[in-house]
Amino acid sequence: MASPLRSLIATGTKLWLDSIDPDLVIRNRALGATGATSNPIIIADLVKTGRFDGELAKLMERNLSDDEIAWELTDGMVRQAQAVFEPVWKETQGNDGYVSFELDPLLEDPENGLTVEERTKQYIELGKRWSAGHTNRMIKIPATPAGLAAVGPLAAAGVTLNVTLIFSSRQYVEARNNIWGGAQQRSSLDGFKSVYSIFVSRVDVYTEAQVPELSKPSQGLVGIINAKKIWQLNEKFWANQSVKLQQEIVFASTGTKKPTDDAWKYVQAFAGSGIETNPPATNDLVEKSGMQFERYIDWFPNWQIVLDVEKAMDWDKMEAFLMEEGIKKFADPQKALLKLIAAKRKELKK
In sequence order, what are the residues at sequence separation of 6 or more whose Cβ sits closer than 8 angstroms to the Cβ of residue 343? Predict the structure, then answer.
């Protein structure tokens, strides 16, 4: 009998790790993970452990600013993870084995006062810079107005993209259309790969607080229904395009937020297709569960629940709310990381 995570992979799901902790990357690769994602919270948590004080000290000796140190450290950690997953990338000829590198979240910080055009220009410049010379690195860009405007030119330039902070079908369609438009400007589509990260559990947190008119049976299922509908849109669109590699949905924010929910609630819901980027703790709990997963991606709750969700949900309102929250959750961790590096600078000089 296969282990729980191996049984999940056997359904057709690609398992990615929501961390680039070097130890966890190796551990989860052994469990079957074939890719990973990074963000400032992950980097900050690793810095707090003290395990990277040596690398920080070396970077500080080069008289780099706190911001430069943050990005050099991130780049180094992502490179380490890429090395672990590079054999997967080679074996699948570019269809899997990627590590996502998130661009500067502070571009979206309202305190910076940048226009959409200025942010778009910087996303394009940074995307090209941090992807240069890499094969299995994805550039992660949020589905903000500036991010969505940048993905087309980046796709045209050959950059492999992961569009993140997607909460609605509208965002997904705009991201996909912009990327596809850019990709068609390439001389060849052989190496074209894109993924679209749909956030799941945050939607259910939102509905419990903001949509009390939903029936009790419907609460906790909106994130799943929403993500599966977007997955269906994605499957239908790419089935009609001449592309060599899979253009996939990433089911993100798959860790449960309610103590009463099974740790594998979202993991099970999307089994069978796409990519699940799970927190390390979620993977650990799934592996200990003893479960054997079967394809579940095509399953929807009964029609009364789906109808109730469609009737109660204002998708535009949800998107606006969660994007505002998401941008704050994007920027604040980067600010915290910079403060942490500044504190480490003082600590390591003693």
Answer: none
